[in-house]
């Protein structure tokens, strides 16, 4: 397990420095944090357990904390807030070590100009776990620096000082952090940060309300689409509706004469239009006639046949014992469809390219990559571009890819003014970076005791990590498999003597990429449906059957505890009561085990989920309420994907392109009860934002199997 | 053409060439009220829901010309931190938002619902609250809607004690 | 409750609608032609989509159920707070593609046509027990003058920006056919 142990990550003292200015008393720029080479790490650690940390720059100082005259500390977060509650968790962690109250800490997104850029992006459920150690250490250093100066000013020794709510006191005298900072030019940086005892924390471990709650409830302008700059214009980009279409030429005469149009921007790789308003830009876009060279019309059946185990390149990602052979093998196959991100805030960006600098305001999960792509297109140094990230109206992996920032920058440069470019919903659906479809073949054999003697998972997926700017090109050839697609593809039943997982990779003719939990949703659906079928075959209780086949190593113990607790809490039973059946499934993702028990009925041939019990072991829970919120959200988003959603290729286009036809879970579909139980199987925080998505599909399918006798093998799960 | 309307209690006269411009963009880009969100532009997701003369309207599908002389309320006018609407209070108490983007639309739809049905059943909620939330906050929303109903009824009880 | 109210307003059903007898053979042929022309329109999704046999409006040329489980509600105009007018205004919307017309709503449940053949629809349309108590003259007026009926020939564009399919008969021809059918005694031919 790749925990973030403090011993592995030491702050480098010489990197600390303190800056003044910016209208505040003292601006503390403390940095940098130790890094590990992401490539090496990706190879060294099994991707299934990847628990990637924060990976910042090694060279430049970066801004973490800013102290204002009002004694409020501003934390510049290198992680993006996209709903997962990261800002709140980071504020809790920092406030406890800074010794300030929650009302005196404000979290903002670090711009690239602060230097505080996380090369690992915001994703993979790593924000809290990755920053657990470094952020607390940085905060502790800040606190100790304050104490050292306070001791000088108060004429006492550091040991005589007490700190509370940003006020340092000795005897009857006290100074606020702001007062301490006044006039200090030469800060003393402590040798080693002394972290407080976790049990003494006031905020960590408590269900503190989200720090962005008021802004979100009163409608504050905080998202990418709300961003504005003075004299801003609006851009739109013409995109093809067909997969693989190549731009040949465009006729723009008509569009040029449309109301509000400022300029048509024709580049080698796109045609854009800049106008005075969003509507005028959209109208003019419709009036541009583009000739595309389109390949033969692709159809859905071609995609399905491409996505079949045996196609592409294979890698054995897990192997223990022998391959299964013989007539007594049980075999089943499963499929998952193309999934759209469908986040409610469309992609959008405001770019202003001036003579020698550019400013980009954007909903992005990858500020460093956004900056790099814009600066390379402009032919500039990265430092000339400042990316100002905003709150995301949903991330889910969609914003790990931001070429629209480049397009807005090019349009801005062409008109010399800021340009805002917003995707239409059609653009959003047609040009998503989809969750790839998958196909799985599961094989198993029972021994005389009715336990698994062998278990195999053979599966194929499109790109997730491969061909993504986030994964260096050198990784796939070395790792041999797509590090995203294989998430959840490993078999957790370590006690099964013969088990293996074989991954096949196919790159589809349209873009597929990161979607919340990556391969976990589909892989767990397939594996846990099959294991459940084997439990039925063995005539054993679904949970007992699973418990018997997990080794008692550390990870195994945590998984078993989660399974057991879920069964007890939900009163798991194989019986059908009042037309409702229960279903069970469990998974481990990024080191966090999770189990679901669902209660399901069928009404008018539709699957209705009444109750979901979620048991999660995220390690130390920094904010139990937000972890619960993530569990609830994962259950509902997972249900949506498992019961309703699918994109299809029709006549060369990805369809549908609007909510409704792209069916999703609504209020009426949400379970009336979601019971979340959190266990703590380790003393540091683990992954939270994705692991609870794993079990939901199989848990529902397993309940339906018990209720109707039907084994549903394709997502979305439909009874007819 | 010129369109006059009252937004959150303030009169506005807006000069426009295209009378079919969706009210959404007038509210967001001309009046600068960003709480009303663009989600789909096709009246499908509900992120742009606001009130026109007290009725829930999806403003991406509402030509500004129909707003002439009307009273518009957006999330900014529903309530604020000093004077929150019961729906907003309930949303805060239940810690509903995750990414938060769809939430103003849901709160506006809920406020409209409570005006029509002060004590909505779960079925009333299922029928009327059909906006889309990707983070999956429906579970907390349902609790918040019931809570908001209780809060609003309590306020009405104080204001009009005789009216049972 | 609704059923009780209805029963007190309307007399119990005694007979089904019977048409005025017409004798002349030639007349009958003309009437039949007019009838079929009229019914070619009334059986098109542009009309049927809002005359559902259940409580769910239909959409598109394939008459799929309205997305998001929108339904009739008490008023035939949707649910209490989320109603037809939440998205549909008195005109088609060029930006959202939401169709619109004054009094955009579903036909009352008594006027459910979906699933009926053209003869049954015509019968239903002329039956005062089911047509809202309208006289033949009022029905003729409804068919030839009502905004929502005539919307069928100005249905706007769908979500992809493509024009919605028009009924198979032009508006002018439809109106003439309706007038001819009513003037010649509105006889419903036998199947």
UniProtKB/TrEMBL annotation, chain A:
Domain named Aldehyde oxidase/xanthine dehydrogenase a/b hammerhead is located at 218-296
Keyword terms: Membrane, Transmembrane, Transmembrane helix
Q: Which InterPro entries match?
A: Ald_Oxase/Xan_DH_a/b, AldOxase/xan_DH_MoCoBD1, AldOxase/xan_DH_MoCoBD2, AldOxase/xan_DH_Mopterin-bd_sf, N-heterocyclic_Hydroxylase, OxRdtase_Mopterin-bd_su_IorB, TAT_signal
Q: Does the keyword Kinase apply?
A: no
Asked whether the UniProt record includes Transmembrane among its keywords, one would answer yes
By its UniProt entry, which Pfam families does this protein fall under? MoCoBD_1, MoCoBD_2
Q: Which residues cross the membrane?
A: 16-35
Q: What is this protein called?
A: Xanthine dehydrogenase family protein molybdopterin-binding subunit
UniProtKB/TrEMBL annotation, chain B:
Annotated Pfam families: Fer2, Fer2_2
Q: Extract the Gene3D superfamilies matched here.
A: 3.10.20.30, [2Fe-2S]-binding domain (1.10.150.120)
Q: Where is the 2Fe-2S ferredoxin-type domain?
A: 1-78
Keyword entries, A-Z: 2Fe-2S, Iron, Iron-sulfur, Metal-binding, Oxidoreductase
Full protein name: (2Fe-2S)-binding protein
What's the source species for this entry? Zobellia barbeyronii
- Organism phylogeny: Bacteria, Pseudomonadati, Bacteroidota, Flavobacteriia, Flavobacteriales
